[in-house]
Amino acid sequence: MRDPVGSRTGAVVEAIRRRLAVPGLAAGERLPSIRGLAASLGVSPSTVVEAYDRLVAEGAIRARPGAGFYASRPAAALALADAATPADRAIDPLWVSRQSLDAAPGMLKPGCGWLPAGWMPQAALRRALRDLARAEDPLLADYGEARGSPALRRLLSRRAADDGIDAGPDHVLLTASGTQALDLVCRALLRPGDTVLLDDPGYFNFQALMRAHRVTVVGVPHTPAGPDPARFAEILAAHQPRLYVANAAIHNPTGATLSPQVAHRVLTAAAAHDLTVVEDDIFADLEPEPSPRLAALDGLERVIRIGSFSKTLSASVRCGYVVARPDRIAALTDLQVATGFGGPSPVAAQLVHGILGDGSYRRHIDALRRRLSRARREVASRLADLGIVPWLVPRGGFSLWCRLPEGRDAAEVARAALAEGVVLAPGAVFSPSRSSTDFMRFNVAQMGEPRIYDVLGRALRH
Amino acid sequence: MRDPVGSRTGAVVEAIRRRLAVPGLAAGERLPSIRGLAASLGVSPSTVVEAYDRLVAEGAIRARPGAGFYASRPAAALALADAATPADRAIDPLWVSRQSLDAAPGMLKPGCGWLPAGWMPQAALRRALRDLARAEDPLLADYGEARGSPALRRLLSRRAADDGIDAGPDHVLLTASGTQALDLVCRALLRPGDTVLLDDPGYFNFQALMRAHRVTVVGVPHTPAGPDPARFAEILAAHQPRLYVANAAIHNPTGATLSPQVAHRVLTAAAAHDLTVVEDDIFADLEPEPSPRLAALDGLERVIRIGSFSKTLSASVRCGYVVARPDRIAALTDLQVATGFGGPSPVAAQLVHGILGDGSYRRHIDALRRRLSRARREVASRLADLGIVPWLVPRGGFSLWCRLPEGRDAAEVARAALAEGVVLAPGAVFSPSRSSTDFMRFNVAQMGEPRIYDVLGRALRH
Q1: In chain A, is it the N or the C terminus that has fewer CB atoms within a 10 Å radius of its CB?
Q2: CB distance B80–A310 less than 8 Å?
Q3: Thinking of the domain B4-71, which architecture would CATH place it in?
């Protein structure tokens, strides 16, 4: 083990380096205050002072007495990732995505965030493709409406009504993906330097996305009932954030479910501070019965719902959506035309509509939930043999958020497993404060292969 | 006719209002200097002074003596379009897109920027969909590689080689659309307040996109041989722009073709000022034989090629691409994962690959060029009967950039035609300086319906 104080400073140095590597950061740009950065990273001000001192010594930043710290050179305009470190070594928020998307054939991916292709509704997808081959000419060749397929928007409006959200088709905008839906909302609402709240731990790509928007992320500790409501209110008062991004139904990575009390307290605090909330619905179909929805409690006044079908239908057919007030939808539609000339592919929307509108999707989801329930039990039991224990038992979904035995460093375990052809998802990448270092997210649907447990056992002893 | 001086001030007032409506513009943000804005809009400094005075009187901006002009209130964070004007009245860079994409059934669209669905390779699309219904499971359900389908990237690399551009598959990134490809490049290279050069006239959505990036646009007068090279060099020296966005092969809207001499002068000036150039290849397949390519002359050192298949294959199957140096591609890939979790749909890429890789695409393009050549002649002759004359005779493509008779105001003609169910593309929306007010872009492939000419005749007499 390294000196814990030293490694904490090292983590802060890395966090500032990442900030310096943000696309387009100019020389002379002011860095966050010592107090502000200490709060956002969850470390003491003296740790930040030490980190800034180290970077001043390196020449990466400059101190102006009495006026703070400044970037001293133009960072690589194009670098979103840590430029100095090869991609397979830097355990940053893009690490898991990069390793999972570009895994060589034969790699095993218990760290990835989606289901195996064989668990998806293949027969329905193939039927929808054959139907599409008989569609009318304009559907196959035209751009389609700026807000996306009216039929799919009507269907999403009915699904919102089932969740107690009163949203007509004019409340719905289709996008190219769930991530792109969030990106569009961020472009419309945020400007560089704003503060955004993310769950800690939370989905790592939200951090990568916020880095692309050059905003400051503050983590809210997550509990089994949702964000810690007392800390949430304190952080709102202290940081005046512009946006909070939450998962609906099944939290990523913990599998936690929002309780009605926490939902109410979150919305009350949000109203008091005029905070906008994005609720990501992407895992909602995987929960056995509906849990509280911020969008339903709020009535879409300050909550924006986003989602996609990549976790339950197909990640290859790219289609996401935003459900929000019509005034927001109108502005987001213009923004999507300007930045993507539309975005929702009519062909993709028709495929999704063809499958969702068919009774087979409901049967697929029912079977999927049962299969995942079995897989969660089986994988939890095999992980227990290795001393790996889930933080909680999720009601649904494919993630188990587990503590490693004896405080092992998950990043080291992930590096050792990668060398043996297994992609894992180490805890720190989920954590805006870079804590959760002894946690790991496991995807139970990707863990049928016994070799995974052998590799994991060796990596833990590494 | 209105007082020309008054209307010029009015245009500048509108330009500043649009700037104030940029997403997220904060109160207290400094507006451009009088001299800078005058140069970028191509008007005299006294016109800008008059416009600023008018906005100060309205309370929209504040003057700080000796320190310039400032936004005096937070503009609507979400408004990209002119918030004060109903969408169907504001002739802004989003007008044509909005009217064309969301045209009611039965509307005629000589102003739109794409081919009718019946002109697209429908049989090949249907065959590719049926083939896809028999593809392997992962292609239909997985995210696919972060850079997009390797098969389509290899094919695009071979197409680049045909154009004299040495680019391996690691030089290629697939995106969700051509516009999204440009957006991604802008996000990586630009920061708010940077200056970008666009052709004047040029494709209107480039202006809308730059507005979303909060950069200052300077127009380069376009000639029948490309951008005016002398003005291009002067503007580079005066404004130090970060980026120039050009069309390859067939300029939108004029149909002009870049000459070898102009291409060389543009690249020489770009090198002297360290300017990056984006060359949009979207219309390239429509030209009868290849014209000079900036990317080929430059060897992808400072030129980035983008493109898509929306004009020649399908706009419903969304798939675009970037061809650039591998270091740029690596950074853009990270950025696309962060902001869209991938972006290129494997299903869409497979459809495009299935059609491009098949001899039928070449036959489709040959037939399309002949059909467009006939349509250009026929439409030019019918427009001549109305006194509407093309600025030049294009070598290919579907656009005719025409001057209206007697200096009629194209925006007024477009409003009158819209009332009769015909969407036109008035010249000013193509012009960063809001000139070209007596020009109109006509899409010859959308003008088979005789009623269009009746409506046009009435609108001209309006």
Answers
A1: N
A2: no
A3: Orthogonal Bundle (1.10)
